[in-house]
Amino acid sequence: MNRKRDETSSTPRRLSVFHRDLNYNPFMAGQLAPADTRSGRLMSVDALRGFDMFWIVGADQIVRALNTVSPTGFVNFLVAQLTHKDWEGVTFYDLIFPLFVFIVGVSLVFALSRTIEREGKRVAYKRIIVRSLLLFLLGVFYNGGLAGGVEKIRLLGPLQRIALSYLVASLLFCSVKLRGMIITCIALLVGYWALMTFVPVPGMGAGSFQEGANLANYIDRQFLPLRKWDGDHDPEGLLSTLPAIATCLLGVFAGLLLKNRSITDRKKVLWLLASGVAGVALGFLWSVQFPLVKKIWTSSYVLLTGGYSAILLAAFYQIIELWGRRKWAMPFVWIGMNAIAIYMTYNIVSVPRIAGRVVGGPVKEMFGIYGDVTITIAVLGLGIMFAWFLYHRKIFLRL
Q1: How far apart are the first and last CA of the chain?
Q2: Mean pLDDT over residues 95-110, rounded?
Q3: 236 and 163 in contact (C-beta within 8 Å)?
Q4: Tag placement on the chain: N or C end, fewer CB within 10 Å?
């Protein structure tokens, strides 16, 4: 790597695997200042992404370990919120995945706008396709790749869903105006509802949303090859990818709002809050007929989780960008700047085993009944330390 060239170039690389970003500076000397949307990054978005990943890399396990020691009412409530619903309903943990997809939509607005401005749409289209393909292949690898033979490959999973949602939302962003994206988003949500409600499933009839008896699960049984997560169907299946694209588009709309310099920052926060509350209300209202089900990504689930995502984004934007309160969010920023790298690391490396070597044995015994809690804290701590190391070495995963 030519270090001098990286330091002086005014156009840092956007497409690579691991690289050292020597130009990025998320601070403005800690000063309170209006949000700068021209740089292509917002610390609040990185922090929210990191907050989302924070629960995946160990925070949830700390709560579960505490519950084994002191199963109080409040801890039981937290454990319930950090556990996915078996089918119908939504907990906080059911917000994690759609929040990440929503943030992908927010981020692509800034990234692709800068690419189009500097290098044109042709380069943007190329990067969209390459990034989507790499994310999809990483998803296959994350779920075991070829380790169990060809028949054990899981074609669709969380990273693959992110890849497909990013692909379609990005192509739409580069190809049509805002009105076209809004129409597409509505068509995806209403069209998915219509398919799930009125198209009959052989042997089951139409309008069933129960597991194994709905259209999305039936299409997976008939047309999704190789391994499926839930036996003969997959929670990231074929048909349910359509409303997931709508989740990403909701993030695009939020990103366009934040990028719009003709709207004051205060009004941006108010718009995010208002749209978030409306999304939550509409999601609950729609759930009366079309239940909230993460595993088939129902349209009501899209509106509800999109609403909560907008509210969280408004809170992070207000605190970090407008009030300038940034130090508290730095661990989230470290994680959020390398979310994919940390996600993959936790699959490849046994972090709990490493934590056991650091604080296991006699150290764990020193804490008595809190020994397992100590291990889970160490797992989260190692994840944050790894994120801190990558951040301060300015090493970021760019696909």
Answers
A1: 18
A2: 97
A3: no
A4: N
